Amino acid sequence: MTNARKLMVPLVLGTVCLFGASCAKKKVAVAPPPAPQPTAEAPKATPVQQQATRTEARPTPAPAVATQPPRTPNAATRARIDELLAKIEDAYFDYDQHTLRPDAVKTLLADSIELRDILKDYPDYQLTIEGHCDERGSAEYNLALGDERARAAKEYLAQIGIPSNQLSVKSYGKEKPVCEDHDENCWQKNRRIHIVAGATQ
Predict the structure, then answer these.
(1) Are 190 and 93 in contact (CB under 8 A)?
(2) How many angstroms separate the Cα of 177 from the Cα of each of 60, 98, 134, 153?
(3) Are 199 and 126 in contact (CB under 8 A)?
(4) Choosing a second label site near 19 at 20 to 30 A (CA), which of 29, 39, 52, 68?
């Protein structure tokens, strides 16, 4: 009985190996990695939102600084004004009159158009119209007459377009004659208006 048992052990082992599809090692199945979890997609931007994003990304340009035009002429322009004033001869008046004569009007008009066009661009620039008289009459009377002559010239120049607020008047009466002889020829030269650059204090 003991021998039979001993013989049975190898037989059982052989059977087990036969039915166990040989005694080769079995491969252990590895579980596949888990599938990635779906992430929530961001909603696509509309064309309007895309344009807004591009606009926000663009740097805002600095506001342009408005430059004010100059209110007084530069040296070259002042030189041209002086040339024009030198061309405008004094306008002359009859004795005891302040009305502009035709020859005075022609004289004032000669270069006043260009002068007008220049002065319009420089509102702070001033001209002074000086009124003068001959030696006859009192100082007070001639001061008043010289003022009227200067104002008559100012009114005419304003009519042709020179801004009135850029024209001031100054009367010297008989205090600044250009001729000192005591005759009509000399007196006529003294009855005049004269235009200078700048406001006379």
Answers:
(1) no
(2) 67, 17, 7, 19
(3) yes
(4) 29
Is residue 97 within 8 A of residue 153, CB to CB? The reply is no
Domains of the chain: 90-197 (3.30.1330.60)
What are the 10-residue block averages of pLDDT along the chain, 201 residues in total?
Answer: 55 53 52 60 58 58 67 86 86 94 86 85 92 96 97 94 94 96 94 84 45
* DSSP string covering the chain: -HHHHHHHHHHHHHHHHHHTTSSPPPPPPPPPPPPPPPPPPPPPPPHHHHHHHHHHHSPPPPPPPPPPPPSS--HHHHHHHHHHHHHSPPEE--TT--SPPHHHHHHHHTTHHHHHHHHTT-TT--EEEEEE--S-S-HHHHHHHHHHHHHHHHHHHHHTT--GGGEEEEEEETSS-S---SSHHHHHHHSEEEEEES---
